[in-house]
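Co-fold these.
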Amino acid sequence: MKLILCLIFTLSVFAQDSLTIVAVGEAEKDNDKIHFGSMGNAGSKSKQLNNILSIIKKDFLFYKHMFDLVASKDDSTLYDVSFKYTAPKLKVIVNSIKDKKELLNKDFTVLFNNQRSFSHDVANEIYKSIKEVDAIFKTKILFASDRTGSRADQKKELYIMDFDGNRKQRVTYENAMIISPVISQDNKTVLFTSIESRWQKSSTGKVQKVKNPNLYSYNLISRKKTLIADKKGINSGAVFSEDGKKIYLTQSNGSNSDIYEMDLKTKSTRRITSHFSDDVDPHVNKDGSLMTFLSGRSGKAMIYTLNPKGKERDVKRISYVGRFNSSPRFSPDGKQIVFSSWVDNRFDVYKIDSNGQNLSRMTKNFGSNEEPWFSPDGQFIVFTSQRVLSRKKAIQDVYIMNIEGEIVAKITDNYGKCYTPRWSN
Amino acid sequence: MILNTTNYNNDRFTNYFLVAIIIHIVAFLCLYISHNIKLFNNPPEKVELIKSSVRVDVVAMPKFTVQELKKMKLVPMSNKKEIEKNQKLKKEKIIEEKVKAATKKVNLNSLFGNLSKKDVVDKKNNSKSKTGTKKYQKELNKLILEGNKLSKGSSTTGSSDYSKSQEFISYVQALPSIVRPYWKLPSYLLDKGLRCRIQVFISKRGEVLNFKVYESSGDAEFDQRAIDALKKVKRFPDPKNEIALRVASGEVILGFPI
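Predicted complex below.
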């Protein structure tokens, strides 16, 4: 009987027990700690090898939202990178300390006459051995600059530079106003619009000089320029399709702007948007299943998506706020769209999911920020930022921020006003 | 005869009682098995899950950047207390200065001049204290409260100790924001979808008396990271007397992440 009563008492205690669970929420990401060893004593080559190591470390500092570079190894260090130089090769070993596993053991022939390029290659191999994807270290950024023009004679030419702003090179010598460049998937071809003057008959029969934005392709290897479209009105904002065989561009044909698909071989076009308001600035995701564009169909410049395989197929409005939104661009995985929006008398960069959810602000109190474009690995956004110095003077430079909105680097300085930065693939 | 009947009745009662007890035990065991509850793990019958939520209606472009929102999240309670302490000290200093200034002999013109200056200093100090982290925290708290508005509820049972339970709930709801700044995972553990729950025993003075892994994630490092986050919290807020016993007896379980 006593046993039974004890049992009843125990059960009643169980029944009275009450616990409250409270969710702490998702954890913050703790950066992976990585240690870079020294180059050792390499005699006369020590200085150059240390310069290479310095460039590799600087490359990794771009990923400061992912890696912490530590001066010495301890229990929390995840990766250890060691170097051994035996002329003419540099052995690079990457060890995962946690998994006790060698991730990379490779000999690189050192290019002392091209240290920067060599360092980026090595840095990329190290990153790839850890993350199993390419880093941005071998990518380039194409942009336009007005540095060759003057106030009276405004010109913009195309330039290309390393992702970190080094090794700037002039691409075009058009002596014209070049806008909206883009690089093909294979990084060989560039599309750009050149605003050119031409003689045209007006409705009254008078022949006059008018400016027309014409679309060109430019082969970066052969340096050959080809005219793609010069219809009356806008021929601009072109981007390559997923296979590079077609392009999507904005054409106005003398009336309101719409988005067209053009076959690069046959030059035949297919209309994708058909609305009485202007539809401009197309950008497609990697598999070509979704297009984002800017349209005034709601009365304000808002961001929309559609299926580019049809005409006005599955049109969906993505943005509902902002006075004027511009340059919507997909992230490489197509899940997010980055764009700029006019707020408080300046542009700022915002990010939104491709389904219209999770609108978030990326820049603030940082000048006027426009033309955002994702890096090929989706970890960074390149954009232009303008600072007004006086009523007559303003500077505009190219900056890089990471996907957490942290400014990582200013990659142009005193290089004219820079526009439309586009990341290579 | 009467005694016999009583004995007979007593025997019958004992038999029925035993049968009833056995039936109850069997039913109880069935219930446990069906709900897959571990009997020897001291299982609670009432487990309440509290979540904080933020409801955002997009009516304008966001005011705060991703970085600003991140910084708001990363202000732990201990720091907030320090900030408040500093602000108090500042205010006390200002008062002391005012008293000192008032005791000095000055002419009327300079007095008015100084007063206006002091007003400016005072206003500046006030505005400084209003800006920065506290301001951001207020905004964030406001946002969180928007998602935690009281509703009618659907429960058909309730306690008369309504205010006590509200006190307890609001105390428990304050805990995640204190632990969260220290709750960090390396990239290789982030997307594994792991979950662990830790029972925490908090003293009257807000100190962690003890903790117990109530539900393991199955990954020792994940569990250790959650424990580390808890250990890094120097002090939780002091629970009020009416809930101190509940908090100290381990009624609170922190879910990492839920």
